[in-house]
What does this fold into?
Amino acid sequence: MAKRSCFSWPGSLPFMPSCFSFFSQKGLPIKKLWKKHFIGYLVACVTLFALTFLTATVLGPEVTGANLYPGFTLAERIDVGNVISRLESLLFVIFFITVYLKLAMYLSAVSITAAKVMNIKNYKPLSLPFGIIFILLSLTEFNNLNDDSDFYFYGSMVLIVSIDVVLPLFMFAVGVVQRKRKRLPIFPVQASKQKQ
It folds into this structure.
């Protein structure tokens, strides 16, 4: 488990520019978003490192490696004077909220992107069909946890490289070629600079 936690930290770093390119189309200030997202990323890395360190030192490496979620096992052992105990329910609530927010973000990104590809002005009618597809994929994609972990350890590297590296580079190259054909600068001038 500790290996999976440590290797997943850099996996979300290439996702950051694609996330901000999605938000830049909404007219949100990219510099503020980048700073806040990077601070959140650092806080998450420090928290994950602290949790991994605590589980390895308190539970031992054998128990940490054997459990799927050693943080829950660690939270079960917390007992402060019979007042604060059994904090795994709090961790479950935090986990549930995090999964809900990630799924909501993925669903809105897929719906908005599909609406733009199909030239549909309102993306909201697409949310329900894509939500149903998400539910069906979650039920049929993996038969058990072993298939899931095998995919993340062995099969997902091809997807990570193609989606986080190759696809953005290809889209950037296509944009450069299109802007050169139209005799526009490669990097567009921001609206705030045009007004000055």
Q: What stands out?
A: Residues 1-11 have pLDDT under 50 and may be disordered. The longest strand covers residues 79-80. Residues 27 and 191 are 10 Å apart (CA to CA).
